[in-house]
Structures are given as C-alpha cells and as structure tokens.
C-alpha cells in the first residue's frame, strides 16, 4: 500500500514531529528553536495558523517561522452543508493535487469529524465510492491532523450553527484504509491525544480507528497502548460473501478477523464496534443476522462488541442500494434477540454526496 516511488512528499509540518523534532527543524533552518513551542501553542491551542495573529513572534521572523513549521497542507476546493449547516463536508486538495474529504458533524451532545487517511483506497470494496477509484497515495501524519484542527477551529469560532463549541470526537472513517497507512495514522492519533501544546489534547476514548480487517495491523494496534475505539468494517458474517464485498478477507477469514478484534477488546478493555453496511438483497437476510450474532458470540462474552448497522449511502449508477426498512428492523430484532447490542447509524449528508469518495469522484 505504499505510494509510487519518486513521488514528492508533502512539506514537513510541526504535526509530523514531536517537540524535539520541531525545535530541530527550526534550528536547521537558521531559526531559533525555542519558537517551536510558541508555534505549537498557536496551532494546537489557539487553532490558528496565520502569521498575522501570532503577535508574540518577532515581526521580522514571523512569516519565515510559520512557513517553516506551518506550511499549507490542505486547500479547500468545495464545502457543502446539510442538516441546517450542522453537517459540513469539505473537499480538500493536497499539495500534489490529490483530493480527499472530511465531514464535520455537530450533534446536541458532541461534535465529530470524519477524516481521510489516504487519497483513494486500495482495498477495492465494490460498493465503496473511494475503493472504485483505487489508491493514489498515503497521507502524511500532518495532512491527517490538519483536517481535525480545521474542524476544531470551525467549532471554536462558531462557524457551525449552535454557537462556539468544542470538537470532541474523531473517526478515521473517511477515504482510505487507516491501518494500511499505519505509521502516519498512529502518529496522527498521538498528536490528537497529546496534551497541548504538544498536541490537540483530545481523549483517546473519543478517537475511533476503522479498518476492513488488516489482521496483522489490528494485532499491532493492540500493543500500542492507546485505548482508541476499534471499528471493524465486517459487512458479512460468512467468508463466501465477505470475500466478494471485502476482498482483503481472502487473506484472513471472518473468524480470524473477528478473533483479532476480540483480542483488541480483551487487551484494551474497549468495546469494539462492528460496522455493517446494510445492502438490499446482498447481506441483509434474517439468517445472516443470526449468523452474525453466532460469529460474535463465539469469540467470548457478547459484552465485548457492539454492532453498528449502516444504511448504505449508494453511489450513482451502482447496483448496491440500501436495505428495505422492514428488513433492517428484522435484522436488528434478530441481533438483539441473541443479546448483541445494536444500533442503526444516524444517516447524515445524503443530499451532499455523504458517502466518502463521492465528492472527490465528481470533481
């Protein structure tokens, strides 16, 4: 899943570096290293990146300091709004022209941003708009973090209806397979959870990392010691169907994948979310609900897991479409009858091409 050789990397940014690395980058550029902490405070604490507002920096060095540690990584191309402005989807252009998306969603009790970790995706799931277009490249740690900082700034400044507020949750469920870009994603998680000014100071419990089931990486994440929520995009309880819907399943079976997720829960004491996109006539049969419950219960006490059913947000011209509401209700009933906690995801942003990758594909 590595990007093509010879492709230029995005410029170094303070979010790519720890505190010592930020200081060294300034010093290597002939600038005073102690200014790194001030720049970090502006970026992570005040959520600003424009030199004019950093009045505690010397006027003669301000622009150079910002250019060195806070280069522009994301340029907004389009922003679409839904739900009376409380859902905002932004299409970003990266330094090399790659396109990615993020979605900021404000609820009465929280604000969540869904971020991308790759430009495109190499997992080739046939019902996914991003997967249909393949992988362009991995994103850097700072490119990932910058999406979150922009969302936090929009909340703090009152741009989102409801008045000034705080970003509380980050979900790695945008474009890309997060665990296929493992190093950058873990770096981003650390920046998001490091206390200010080293990072954004979010709770690890407010961060969710999604995966289609890269078993070796799930095991690696288990040993990281960062209690983020793991979300496993399962979409089918049997290997025959999951091989079709999630091609990576041919490397690790449903049982092996669920076992790795269960081990994550057992080690971190964090309940795993099983993501299941409901597709009409494909994976929404009542018997598959029973099988899903049996698969999850086979890996230990059912309390380790929670099923999150997702009404599919279909892409234009696709044969994949959302389940009939009656079939969805029966699926929920069967899971709950076997003691599996189940919810149906609140669908937001359908009118703004809410499924990840749709906006980038249209552009």
Summarize the structure in words.
The protein is globular and about 70 Å long. Helix 5 packs parallel to helix 6 (182-193). With 363 residues, it is α/β, with parallel strands linked by helices. Residues 1-6 have low confidence and may be disordered. It has helices at 19-28, 35-45, 62-69, 129-132, 141-156, 182-193, 215-222, 239-245, 254-268, 286-297, 325-337, 358-362; strands at 75-82, 87-93, 99-106, 111-114, 118-120, 135-138, 169-172, 207-211, 229-233, 272-278, 305-311, 342-344. The strands form 2 sheets. Strands 1-2-3-4-7-8-9-10-11-12 form a 10-stranded mixed sheet, covered by helices on one side. Strands 5-6 form a two-stranded antiparallel sheet. The longest helix is centred in the middle third of the chain and has 16 residues, at 141-156. The two termini are 24 Å apart. It has 12 helices and 12 strands. It folds into 2 domains: 14-69, DNA polymerase, domain 1; 115-347, TIM Barrel, CATH 3.20.20.70.
């Amino acid at each position: 899943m590595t990007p093509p050789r010879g492709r230029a990397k995005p410029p170094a940014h303070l979010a790519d570096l720890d505190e010592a690395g930020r200081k060294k980058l300034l010093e290597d550029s002939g600038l005073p290293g102690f200014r790194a902490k001030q720049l970090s405070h502006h970026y992570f604490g005040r959520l600003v990146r424009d030199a004019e507002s950093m009045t505690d920096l010397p006027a003669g060095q301000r622009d150079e300091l910002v250019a060195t540690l806070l280069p522009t990584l994301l340029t907004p191309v389009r922003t679409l709004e839904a739900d009376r402005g409380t859902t905002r989807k932004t299409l970003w252009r990266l330094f090399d022209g790659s396109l990615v998306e993020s979605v900021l969603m404000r609820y009465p009790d929280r604000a969540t941003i869904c971020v991308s970790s790759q430009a495109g995706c190499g997992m080739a799931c046939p019902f996914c708009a991003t997967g249909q277009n393949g992988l362009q490249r991995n994103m850097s740690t700072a490119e990932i973090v910058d999406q979150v900082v922009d969302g936090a700034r929009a909340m703090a400044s009152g741009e989102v209806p409801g008045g000034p507020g705080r970003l509380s949750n980050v979900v790695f469920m945008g474009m890309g397979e997060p665990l296929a870009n493992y190093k950058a994603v873990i770096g981003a998680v650390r920046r998001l959870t490091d206390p200010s000014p080293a990072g954004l100071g979010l709770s690890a419990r407010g961060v969710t990392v999604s995966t289609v089931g890269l078993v070796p990486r799930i095991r690696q994440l288990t040993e990281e010691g960062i209690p983020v929520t793991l979300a496993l995009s399962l979409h089918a309880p049997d290997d025959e169907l999951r091989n079709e819907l999630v091609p990576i399943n041919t490397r690790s079976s449903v049982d092996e994948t669920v076992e790795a997720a269960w081990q994550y829960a057992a080690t971190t004491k964090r309940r795993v979310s099983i993501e299941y996109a409901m597709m009409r006539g494909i994976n929404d049969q009542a018997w598959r609900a029973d099988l899903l419950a049996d698969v999850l219960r086979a890996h230990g006490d059912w309390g380790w897991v929670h099923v999150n059913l997702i009404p599919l947000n279909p892409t234009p011209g696709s044969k994949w479409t959302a389940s009939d509401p009656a079939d969805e209700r029966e699926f929920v009933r069967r899971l709950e009858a076997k003691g599996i906690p189940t919810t149906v995801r609140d669908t937001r942003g359908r009118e703004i091409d809410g499924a990840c990758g749709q906006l980038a594909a249209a552009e």
